[in-house]
Records
---
Amino acid sequence: MPYAPSSQDVTRLPSWQALNEHRQALDGFNLRQAFVDDPQRFERFSLDDCGLFLDYSKNLIDERTRSLLVDLARDAGLTQAIAALFEGAQINASERRPALHTALRRPLGDRVLVDGEDVMPQVHRALLRMSELVGRVHHGLWRGYSDKPITDVVNIGIGGSFLGPQLVSEALLPFAQRGVRCHYLANIDGSSFQELAAKLSAETTLFIVSSKTFSTLETLKNAQAARGWYLAQGGPEDELHRHFMAVSSNVEAAKAFGIREENILPMWDWVGGRYSLWSAIGLPIAMSIGISNFKELLTGAYRMDLHFQQAPFERNMPVLLALLGVWYGNFWGAQSHAILPYDHYLRNITKHLQQLDMESNGKRVRQDGSALQIASGPVIWGGVGCNGQHAYHQLLHQGTQLIPADFIVPVSSYNPVADHHQWLFANCLSQSQALMLGKSHAEAEAELRAQGLSEDEVQRLAPHKVVPGNRPSNTLVLERVSPGRLGALIALYEHKVFVQSVIWGINAFDQWGVELGKELGKGVYSRMVGSDPSGAEDASTQGLIDFFRSHHRG
Ligand code: F6P
């Protein structure tokens, strides 16, 4: 189904212009004061759905901001775009493809057409095959060449074929089934391969080569290394099928690599790599947590899909998060956005959201090819709290940039140790509080005087102690990290990214920029190894190639 993205310039919409004026009017907006003026502010700007509680009251907004942002979403055609996303229209216009990750979590019986064919039966057939495979491994029925059960599953994949599965399987470690350990091999770095291989036995290891295209350099090189290692460890060649399987939409390439057809699970062109953990690319997740938990993950994401489709924009979590991002990026000049999980198990969420957001919305032209005149996706960064508090939070509190942040925190821990979780939670809340409240010059002076410092010292130190405050954040609270809630959380961010792409009029589902580096990489490699005698296009790259050639030892 072709998709006709709106070709309008969003900045010409009356709601955009109204937001511009409103932004000027909010110049002196003070969050501290906003809470004093409105005792209902927390209730007014928070919502609870899909197992997630979102507090967005600590943002530089009032009721009018929300209503103008919602007008903007409507004017930009968001209602139609959401329908197009779920119906399977070709919203990835440059590649003429739909982006149907939402089909992967829909129940059997739903119909989703791609080129006139209902894809739901294939989706559920793949799920059934995953279920059968996982059952065989977990029950010791899938055995290695020496008839021992599989104890280690190694996912070989990179980008979307790595970050999502790794996030989920590590976040759901408390749900891990006994007996099978999950590992991830992504980078083309011999050290990561060797360090992992040293922990494995070829007799009991199953490799999943996870690559939508089956053409990704890092993945193919690691898959070759794994095969070489298996053979060098004494694994018989004719038993390779007990140790290698693949998930790919390129069945021919996987077969050419030597993987048996019955060991290849499908992927489809209509699922983007960074949106693929819900497909058979999620096989290592299911291997780790079992198929019922994997289905719970899908159900959680499906609940968020329904919320996204049905909730009015004023009470729609992904829409609100997206609009807040637009508000800061396009009207306040914010260039980055911090993702700060306060949970050990969620520590990889920043890396996954980084790919999801930056590979999707790191674009400079609109769907129709015209240059975008406003900022698109921000830099996504961050990491686990409290660790970040002792590293980069300083810049959030006193740096010169406005950096909105999302705090993500569970109410309860799977591993209570004394009062650690209470302290973890308290730290999370106090960080968003400190960002909002800050410390005025008068407060800094009073504090220093109370310490008995001389007036000279007070005046010398006070400016350094001032924390401007008024810095915005969202807090997402979940009871505990469960498969369902995690599914909803990830789907929330997927939809947030989509909404922003609609507002900016860009394509969130292609990634042409990544290709240039891949192409140039081949030329650089040929020159480094001497198979191409010609010089590099520029003196810097050539100088570095020469340095490599004269110093390389292994
Ligand atoms: O980095 C570009 C990219 O195409 C990502 O979008 C994708 O997730 C990753 O490479 C891996 O691709 P594949 O699954 O085809 O190996």
---
Amino acid sequence: MNVSLIQNSDKLKYDIEIILMFKKEFEKSSFKEKKLLKELNFKAQDEEVVFLPESKKIFVGCEENSYESLAISMSAAVKKFQATQFKTAYIKLCKEEQQSLKAFTQGAILGSYTFTKYKKEEKKVEQELILVASNDLKELSSLFNEAVIVANSVNKTRDFVNTTPDDFYPKIMAKEAKKIAKANELEYAVYGDKYLKKNKMMSMYSVGRASRHESKLIHLTYKPKDAKKKAVLIGKGLTYDSGGLSLKPSDFMVTMKSDKSGGCAVLNIIEAASKLKLPIEIHAIVGAVENMIGGDAFKPDDVLKAKNGKTIEVRNTDAEGRLVLADCLCYAQDEIQDIDYIFDYATLTGASVVGVGEYTTSIMGNSQMLKCHAVQSAINAGEYATSLPFNRFLRKTIKSEIADVCNIANTRYGGAITAGLFLDHFVYEQNKDKWLHFDIAGPAYVEKAWGYNPHGASGAGVRMSIELLKELALK
Ligand code: BES
Ligand code: ZN
Ligand code: ZN
């Protein structure tokens, strides 16, 4: 859906009006349609929507004046608008225009998202939502543009992730990365199996060995002239995770096209950051790999050597994301000098989903401060996140009898943290406090629609990272 911003005038032309009704105000206020709304049992609760065709008004309830409530209400309203054939709708911004502007814009763009690539369905009319401001647009328009850029990046991430594994394999991911690089004048490099072997990245290489699709290591760089800091973003790009020889049961295998969510997020984060001209150098690195079975597959019992020389005992081929990320972390730290921040994004563990729920990202790392910062940025950006703690006892559970580290823990508990601790083995000493690990296994893929997220990919990680990078660039 197209969203535009204009200043209030008498000459507004539109088909329908959207009216946001705060629950508290609904009871007190008196207006023409109130009696009818009451008869329809409208109570102005969050997400409650009524369309009155005669007056051409969509009423939507809202219980709180927060980004989340406003965005969710907006999303509910635009869905109702989408169910009609009307072309334009308008809504007046709330009193605190700056806050409602971002929430309305993103709620509308995220909430109206649909993924129709595989549907035969006829093309729908292009609809437009007009946001009407009462004040001068000067200040508002840059906020508006930013909100649009970020929301569009979330939707593009959703498109990537929703695309099926036969249409989106490592080579395609590299192609999409190249498109982003070309369109935004970013530096671009992509490496294949030959490079992985030559550079002793056998951990990443082995995971992709049984696939008919060659693995790709993708590296984009955004280098603004006024860069004050340097951040590296690494994404798990498992274009499909069958589990490998430790094969997933069929019910758990469906949705594993979403195992590329971290990689897709970092490609779109770097694009949004460059569009926003953030004054921070950013590297986006993706390990694009398909984890399959076959005579050439890597096996439980194999010992793999990563780029930093550490050996890894494989006891479960389904704990493959950490094997790919291990080499990507090494690659980043070997190839990029003077890193200020190094973040990885991955749908890494089912344990994260069990532990914190399907709506929340688990953030791990060695710096309490950086973790807090990231959690706060996520919440400010409208995403749920929490931090999980490392400890010395969980650290011991990934010891191996025959190699330097084991790819699974010897305990059933704390699986999200032990995965994070595994990654910590591949973070060099000088970067320990600069590193964060984002486990987005819960929120990345939506099986039951919630808020402004329809079924399918959510684009988790994009909004929170832009917010965090903005903060860090200024520090
Ligand atoms: N990609 C999965 C994790 C996952 C699970 C993501 C559910 C999204 C939803 C990952 O590669 C995996 O299979 N992890 C295993 C690790 C285990 C073998 C130690 C898991 O979580 O079961
Ligand atoms: Zn797996
Ligand atoms: Zn996986």
